[in-house]
Amino acid sequence: MQWTKVLGLGLGAAALLGLGIILGHFAIPKKANSPAPSVSAPQDLDLEILETIMGQLDAHRIRENLRELSREPHLASSPRDEDLVQLLLQRWKDPESGLDSAEAFTYEVLLSFPSQEQPNVVDIVGPTGDIIHSCHRTEENVTGEQGGPDVVQPYAAYAPSGTPQGLLVYANRGTEEDFKELQTQGIKLEGTIALTRYGGVGRGAKAVNAAKHGVAGVLVYTDPADINDGLSLPNETFPNSWYLPPSGVERGSYYKYFGDPLTPYLPAIPSSFRLDPANVSGFPPIPTQPIGFQDARDLLCNLNGTLAPDTWQGALGCHYRLGPGFRPDGDFSADSQVNVSIYNRLELRNSSNVLGIIRGAVEPDRYVLYGNHRDSWVHGAVDPSSGTAVLLELSRVLGTLLKKGTWRPRRSIVFASWGAEEFGLIGSTEFTEEFFNKLQERTVAYINVDIAVFGMEIRSPGPGDLSIYDNWIRYFNRSSPVYGLVPSLGSLGAGSDYAPFIHFLGISSMDIAYTYDRSKTSARIYPTYHTAFDTFDYVDKFLDPGFSSHQAVARTAGSIILRLSDSFFLPLKVSDYSETLRSFLQAAQQDLGALLEQHSISLGPLVTAVEKFEAAATALGQRISALKGSPDPLKVRMLNDQLMLLERTFLNPRAFPEERYYSHVLWATRTGSVATFPGLSNACSRARDTASGSEAWAEVQRQLSIVVTALEGAAATLRPVADL
Predict the structure, then answer these.
(1) What pLDDT is stored for residue 42 in this prediction?
(2) Quick one: three-class SS letters along 457-470?
(3) Cβ within 8 Å of residue 457, ≥6 positions away
(4) By the 8 A CB rule, do 9 and 556 touch?
(5) pTM for this model (two decimals)
(6) Helices 678-687 and 695-718 sit at what angle, rounded to 10 degrees?
(7) How many CB atoms lie within 10 A of CB 483?
(8) What is the helix (H) or strand (E) element at residue 683, kind and residue range?
(9) Separation between Cα atoms, residue 656 and residue 650, nearest integer Å
(10) Among 211, 265, 390, 505, whose Cα sits 20 to 30 Å from the Cα of 520?
(11) Is 72 a residue of the active site?
């Protein structure tokens, strides 16, 4: 099947300051009569060096990087994972293309693995305990890469061991609402096994929701409707297309939080206090196991009971029913039950981060961080090796210029390869915990490139092709009151290693990926995600033949890093943040204003706080413009620090006591339906049906005060340094 060839660059910036990098410096065309920079201005970004770097980023080298990185499975802490640690150190210490220094930092962390002696199994058993049918324990070895000894069996990391058995029910996506719907249908959930599909809520939340209703065990599968555009036959899937084969199983961590489970808020080093594993919160409460949709079809298409709602139906080729139990005219007897036998174990393992550093020539104490994780569930060609392949090529090009003596950045650049990300962002979180103060005081921004390319069959950039910016704005755009039609950026959740930087440290962060045209497919992510089919040939044949999209990501990331590290004035636009705050305010006024008024809560202080921020942002922009005419290095440094530290002003470690690491009052998790400040939205959602004067409405007032205080503090940070 021929897929779209013009894809947008997906780029999420937790701080819309990041948008200023794109819009203010290489996306929005400059006016022809813009004044030339002063001849007395200090050395700024060298556009010739930037152009040289863009030209030297080689698609073929990225391809060969990916071939090597994904050659073998490299689960966190495995021998191959440690081999890649040494590969990175070797590359970054190379005498001709290496960096100033490179070092590995090792942490002892709690990981979860299936037992090699007793594999996890899902069986259908008869009333006498005899096994009638068994689900597949491994994925089909379709290319010779799915059956090796280093291919870990599909499992739910951190799910507890146990052998629950019961009647099967279908619980859609496993949300709280889905289980309530089953109860509304008169289905008794106590002691059942729930079959759920990916999506809707996080992996671990499915087990948590199920346990609340007495469910004994959970199975999770990927429905072809959600990832394969409904296609499910072997000749329609990999290796014949990019679609997931019927035996494909999405592995993943089911731990609620991020970071090492035993050392929350502390680095996992020998001197740190560790929790007793028996007292750790955030693990799934009941045994859980992922399965392929081939096995899900055998289970779901034989279910008895009421027909599932239309929105619960999928593409397994049958009508989905709710259960409980199997129909009498199906493949299994009506009194058959499902047994889920899980033998996962917890182990303390060593996992390493690798850091490579280019020291800044003028401001070495200001860091631009660029990172990606190294570990994968199996071969991990897309996730994460596509991002690491790009990282290695960019560091090679910069390192070569560095060793030749033709370039050194103004600020320090730190390349990072994080360990054990797949188990819950462990390496990056431990790094932020160990170096919390230094990073908060000195880091300009964190750039993340994990999955570099989601898309398929991208043509190489060339004459007649759209630029990345034009392509991006064509497929993902929004209307800006300042710029008009601009690229659309998403906000950052906790899906990759940017999470501890933005949510915990308050560092402006960005995640870059080349994505597909979502109007052409219903796939929620690339189909072989976290399976043994995510291989080099999958990328080389289906996602990015020629690796032009990988090269485009490298050029985009390189441009951003060079501008952040070399520009005299940091390319962060505070005015773009004003747009976000104004949109949050308007949403609160329109969707919550009347409700708040009924409970004698005024949005007046919030309106005033947003206006103060807007005024301070405008004034700062004017000071920057004035200073550009005759820049004083010390004054520029002060202004740059104001820009850098702005993000930190939105942190309040007591704002969300029920969450771990989330302290950013603008970008924390939002569960409420109103797209406004998350704490306010969530609190209003919980308080809506309670009486005035309740604790829930007191929490609404508290969250409103937290936001107002943060905005006023941010405005104060933007005012002249001498203005107290």
Answers:
(1) 61
(2) CCCCCCCCCCCHHH
(3) 2, 3, 5, 542, 543, 544, 545
(4) yes
(5) 0.93
(6) 170
(7) 16
(8) helix 678-687
(9) 13
(10) 390
(11) no
- The whole-number pLDDT of residue 474 equals 84
Domain boundary, last residue among 323, 342, 361: 342
**Which residue in 237, 272, 280, 219 sits closest to 255, CA to CA?**
280
Give me 96's structure tokens.
């001709």
Cα–Cα distance for residue pair 365/348, rounded to 1 Å:
35
CA dist 427 and 685 (Å) reads 34
CA angle 709, 714, 715 (to 5 degrees): 100
Same domain, 454 and 591: no
Q: Which one, of 449, 443, 446, 348, lies nearest residue 393 by Cα?
A: 449
Q: Is residue 229 a contact partner of residue 514, using CB atoms and an 8 Å limit? A: no
Q: Where are the beta strands (DSSP E) in 248-362?
A: 252-253, 288-290, 337-341, 345-358
CA distance 421 to 259: 9
- Say yes or no: 329 and 441 in one domain: no
Average pLDDT, the chain: 91
Residue 204 has φ and ψ, to the nearest 5°, of -65, -30
Q: What is the mean pLDDT of residues 276-288?
A: 96
Q: What is residue 706's predicted lDDT score, i.e. its pLDDT?
A: 98
Give the model's confidence band at 705: pLDDT under 50 very low, under 70 low, under 90 confident, else very high.
very high
Cβ within 8 Å of residue 176, ≥6 positions away: 209, 212
Q: Which two tokens stand for residue 577?
A: 């943040």
Alpha helices in 228-323 (DSSP H): 293-300
Cβ atoms of residues 670 and 707 within 8 Å: no
Contact predicate 420/109, CB 8 Å: yes
Question: What is the enclosing helix (H) or strand (E) of 11?
Answer: strand 9-13
Range of the domain at 355: 47-110+347-566
Assigned token pair, 674: 């109103």
pLDDT, tens only, 433-474: 999 999 999 999 999 999 999 865 434 344 456 788 888 888
- The pLDDT, as a whole number, for residue 22 is 37
Tell me the C-alpha distance between 679 and 190, whole Å: 34
14 domain-assigned: no
How far does Cα 707 stand from its chain's mean position?
A: 25
One-character DSSP codes across 555-618: HHHHHHHHHHHH-SS----HHHHHHHHHHHHHHHHHHHHHHHHHTT---HHHHHHHHHHHHHHH
3-state secondary structure of 10: strand
Q: What length is written for the chain?
A: 724
Tokens of 213: 């209703």
Same-domain pairing of 472 and 554? yes
Identify the burial level of 172 via C-beta atoms within 10 angstroms of its C-beta, where 0-12 means exposed, 13-18 middle and 19 or more buried: buried
Residue type present at position 658:
E
Tens digits of per-residue pLDDT, 479-529? 888 888 988 888 898 999 999 999 999 999 999 998 887 778 888 899 999
Out of 421, 422, 457, 614, pick the active-site residue: 421
CB 587 within 8 A of CB 675: yes
| Dihedrals phi, psi of 90, to nearest 5 degrees | -65, -45
Q: List the one residue out of 327, 334, 333 whose CA is nearest residue 302.
A: 327
Q: Does residue 416 contact residue 369 with C-beta atoms inside 8 Å?
A: yes
Q: Is residue 292 part of a domain?
A: yes
Q: Give me the half-sphere count of Cα atoms (radius 13 Å) on the Cβ side of residue 558.
A: 27
For residue 125, list its beta bridge partners.
Answer: 131, 337
CATH for 616? 1.20.930.40
Looking at the domain assignment, is residue 4 inside a domain? no
The sign of the CA dihedral 552, 402, 23, 444 is positive
The verdict on 482 and 598 lying in the same domain is: no
368-424 pLDDT, tens per residue? 999 999 999 999 999 999 999 999 999 999 999 999 999 999 999 999 999 999 999
